[in-house]
Amino acid sequence: MTTPQRVWISQDAHQRLQAELDELRALLDRDAVDSGSTDENRIALQRARQARINHILDMLTHAVVGEDPPDDGVAEPGMVLTVRYDDTGDTETFLFASRAAEHGDIEIYSPQSPLGEALLGARTGEQRTYRTPAGATVPVTVLAAVPYSLHRSREGEPIGS
């Protein structure tokens, strides 16, 4: 038996997920009043809502909420990474976190993505390679890795908003 993996999510994402969970539960409660219905669309919708509830509960149960990793320049969930794609020289900045929980103004890459798996544990200045779904090998260098809240405060956003 494997131990469920802890997932880093921001405080904002936690609040959004909790609000969505509350709304879905209210919709299921309302649907329970009409439980005698045999409408296939309604039943499919109820099953989809229950599946989403289960998914949210799983994320919230295993979430590390808003606890920034140390500011040590190591790529790990909860860090904002700036990387350079060495073949093109292009740079990109993104939040290293669960795509299922986060959304907002910054791009998100999951630690389970091909790029995420390659970068996990990389230090600032370190080059790693990853394989695209098409089979190409792409070299990428970590230019910066800072905790999410530190990045937000540098961007002028209040922490926790």
TrEMBL record:
Keyword terms, alphabetized: Elongation factor, Protein biosynthesis
A Pfam family matched in the record: GreA_GreB
GO BP annotation list: DNA-templated transcription elongation; regulation of DNA-templated transcription elongation
GO molecular function, one term: DNA binding
Segments traversing the membrane: none
Segments forming domain Transcription elongation factor GreA/GreB C-terminal: 72-144
Gene3D superfamilies, per the entry: Transcription elongation factor, GreA/GreB, C-terminal domain
Lineage: superkingdom: Bacteria
InterPro entries: GreA/GreB_C_sf, TF_GreA/GreB_CS, Tscrpt_elong_fac_GreA/B_C, Tscrpt_elong_fac_GreA/B_fam
Official protein name in the record: GreA/GreB family elongation factor
The organism of origin for this protein: Nocardia bhagyanarayanae
